[in-house]
Design brief:
This protein has helices spanning 7-12, 17-60, 75-109, 115-146, 152-220, 225-235, 240-254, 262-267, 271-279, 293-307, 312-318, 333-345, 347-354, 390-393, 423-432, 434-438, 452-465, 471-482, and strands at residues 362-363, 369-370, 490-504, 507-522, 531-536, 542-545, 549-551, 556-559, 568-576, 582-590, 594-603, 609-617, 622-628, 632-634, 639-647, 653-661, 670-677, 685-687, 695-696, 698-713. With 714 residues, it is an alpha+beta fold. Strand 1 and strand 2 (369-370) form a beta hairpin. Keywords: Coiled coil, Endocytosis.
């Protein structure tokens, strides 16, 4: 045995037994904790790699390129990118598994599986007893020394016993200290080798990634942008001549063939009818609108050229069809539009005759036709086809053929169409305002009967100038606006209960519920009848009302004010309990060096307990603790905590814990915390009643919650 292997022995053998044991125990405890923390780090590192693999796998399930033909010659680039995903998944998945199997698990098990560690644990109890007895004898020696000569004999006796204990420590401590050093050397060797193995695993994974990138680069480098552009141009190459000829063919096909021959245009009408028609044409001058100025300028140039066509008049008389236009607005305009449509269809034939024939219709500088000087003031025989009757046109006011020097006609052209109202809506509106008309007793004044012309002008013009909305419909809408829907009173309820319980040896010494009811009112601000609701509680409950409500009957309460819409507390109550929602039975066993705890607990209520937590204090100077399930030990506060989460079953469960202490501990109470959602342990109910003399508020939402405030079991 070399000096290097006896460093623990040479350093700690001459110390007081308690100091030597405390030093070795503290180091061993920190070593176990360090291994656990390193194992947690590598576990999280493996989980990160696993999450990366899952994220890559999500990419394989997505469809990114909708049209691979758009890649052209760069298709291999996308294929290698897509293939990289599966390869990366395999690399990092293998890397994650190896971290868990080769690093994390060996770190957690290295101390437990070590034989020297188990021997140290078994030897520690006996040596701790020797150290404790040695300190007790030392305390007695100091006590007897203070007693003076009377205690000298006892001092000598205690000194001999102390020397025996120290000799016992000298005989048994070396093996213990050597085992401690062996355990310390072993766990550092394991930690060092495992970290080195982790770096080798990481290096291997990175090398595989590097090889993958080299392969991808070797495929992408040869791709040429010029080849891709040349590939595109070769697929879309065409002769210029072919494209030009195709363009002319397409545009020639758009121009329709003339549907009327030249012979039909020449012989369709007699010269007498042609003369009679031109003698009765009326020039209509329309002022162009500012909104259509650009469009009018473009169309005027086309109308000027078309108005000189020699076949214009012949096309008008050879094809007389009725035109569906707005009746009574204009007379000569439909025939001019009809001529323009035929002129466009036979444009090619008319251009050949345009240079030979003289223009029959003279057009001014603005494109309007000028009537011939020899026209008559009579309408042609075909005037019976007009939309206006002959008798109407012979009146003095609006006729085109009056004896005035400057005959005129007014034409109002509107862009909006007349929207007819629904007869059913008008009937409903009339029925709603009928009572207003019955009180009208004044007889209407005598009015002149309207003639036929006045009736027609009303139908054609006055209706178009009126707004589309009906006065009766407007009055009906105003009535609806004056009678808005009245909202019903409603309340949203929030009930919170807190449990205070103290139990000893399985018997309830004190248990109660303190509850608070809060509501939020929505609805009308005023009501002719009281707005009420019912709160049902056990008869043993003690209640206290706030200023917001008052009691009407046994369980009926009225809201005093309907103005506020904020959440307000209306009631607090208190109720004694005979049983507890969570039964807890703690059992302690405290020895000189160890304290053991067994907790049995069981749910005894409906619903699910959430956020269940047990907390207890541990006395006796705790050095180390073991617990099933694991707990959180705070050495600074000498306290241990168990977070049990959700408890949704009624079966009995256990908590086992063992604490290593420097002195004998004492039993401590168990404090519990938990939440109960959507349930009330007092069975409080809020609903509507059946009294027709009051207005019952509608209960929309009831939020229920129970919390354990001070729940202590000793």
């Amino acid at each position: 045995m070399t000096l290097q292997n006896d460093m623990y022995l040479n350093t700690l053998i001459n110390e007081r037994p308690k100091h030597a044991l405390n030093a070795t125990h503290t180091r061993l405890h920190s070593a176990v904790k360090l291994n656990e923390e390193l194992a947690d780090y590598f576990r999280d590192r493996a989980q990160i790699e696993d999450l990366y693999v899952k994220s890559l796998q999500k990419l394989t399930r997505k469809h990114y390129i909708s049209n691979k033909a758009a890649l052209g010659t760069f298709v291999p680039m996308w294929e290698i990118l897509y293939q990289e995903i599966s390869t990366l998944c395999n690399i990092h998945s293998d890397y994650s598994n190896k971290i868990l199997e080769n690093i994390e698990q060996p770190l957690r098990q290295c101390m437990i599986n070590n034989a020297d560690y188990n021997q140290v644990q078994s030897m520690e109890d006996h040596l701790a007893k020797i150290a404790r007895e040695y300190d007790e004898l030392d305390a007695k020696i100091q006590k007897h020394k203070r007693a003076g000569p009377k205690g000298e004999s006892k001092v000598v006796e205690c000194t001999k016993q102390q020397e025996k204990k120290y000799q016992e420590w000298i005989n048994e401590a070396p093996a213990y200290l050597q085992k401690h050093q062996a355990v310390d050397e072993y766990r550092w060797t394991v930690v060092k080798s495992l970290v080195q193995n982790f770096e080798l695993l990481q290096q291997s994974a990175l090398e595989k990634n590097l090889e993958l990138t080299k392969t991808a680069t070797a495929i992408i480098d040869p791709l040429s942008i010029e080849d891709e552009i040349a590939h595109f141009c070769s697929g879309n190459h065409r002769e210029v001549g072919d494209s030009v000829s195709e363009y002319h063919l397409q545009h020639d096909a758009v121009v329709p063939e003339p549907s009327i021959s030249e012979s039909s245009l020449k012989h369709a009408t007699s010269p007498t009818k042609k003369k009679r028609f031109f003698s009765t044409l009326v020039s209509i001058r329309r002022k162009p609108k500012s909104g259509h100025l650009q469009h009018t300028t473009d169309t005027q140039n086309r109308q000027r050229s078309l108005s000189h066509s020699g076949s214009l008049v012949e096309s008008i008389h050879s094809h007389e069809h009725p035109i569906n236009t707005n009746p009574g607005i204009e007379v000569a305009t439909p025939q001019i539009r009809k001529a323009a449509s035929f002129t466009t269809a036979t444009m090619t034939q008319q251009q050949q005759q345009q240079q030979q024939d003289a223009p029959l219709i003279v057009v001014d500088s603005e494109g309007y036709s000028i009537p011939p000087p020899n026209r008559n003031h009579t309408w042609p025989s075909e005037a019976s086809e007009s939309l206006v009757d002959t008798e109407d046109m012979s009146s003095d006011a609006g006729s085109l053929f009056s004896n005035n020097a400057n005959p005129r006609i007014r034409v109002d052209i509107k862009n909006e169409s007349v929207v007819e109202e629904d007869a059913s809506n008008a009937a409903v509106a009339l029925s709603r305002v009928a009572t207003l008309l019955k009180e009208k007793n004044a007889a209407p004044g005598t009015r002149r009967l309207r003639g036929r012309r006045e009736v027609r002008s009303t139908q054609l013009y006055s209706v178009m100038e009126q707004p589309s909305s009906s006065p009766f419909l407007q009055s009906f809408e105003e009535v609806n606006e004056e009678e808005p829907d009245v909202a019903l009173p409603a309340i949203n309820v929030d009930v919170t209960e807190r449990i205070f319980a103290l139990s000893k040896s399985g018997h309830i010494e004190q248990a109660m519920i303190k509850g608070e009811v809060r509501i939020r009112y929505t609805g009308p601000r005023e009501s002719t009848r009281p707005v009420c609701f019912q709160i049902n509680l056990p008869s043993s409950a003690a209640t206290e009302l706030t200023d917001h409500i008052q009691l009407l009957t046994d369980n009926t309460y009225q809201l005093k004010s309907l103005i506020t819409e904020k959440e307000m507390v209306i009631m607090t109550y208190q109720l004694d309990l005979t049983d507890l929602p969570l039964l807890i039975k703690p059992m302690w066993r405290c020895d000189q060096e160890k304290s053991r705890l067994l907790i049995k607990y069981q749910k005894q209520c409906a619903g699910t307990l959430e956020n269940v937590v047990f907390i207890t204090s541990v006395t006796g100077d705790v050095q180390h603790a073991q617990s099933i399930p694991p707990g959180e030990l705070s050495l600074a506060h000498q306290r241990i905590r168990w977070d049990l989460g959700t408890l949704d079953h009624s079966e009995e469960a256990n908590i086992k814990a063992q604490f290593e202490t420097n002195s004998q501990g004492s039993p401590q109470p168990i404090a519990a915390r938990f939440d109960l959602k959507d349930e009330l342990y007092s069975h409080l109910q809020i609903n509507q009643g059946f009294d027709p003399n009051v207005t019952w508020a509608q209960v929309n939402v009831i939020n229920k919650s129970v919390k354990a405030d001070k729940y202590i079991v000793a």
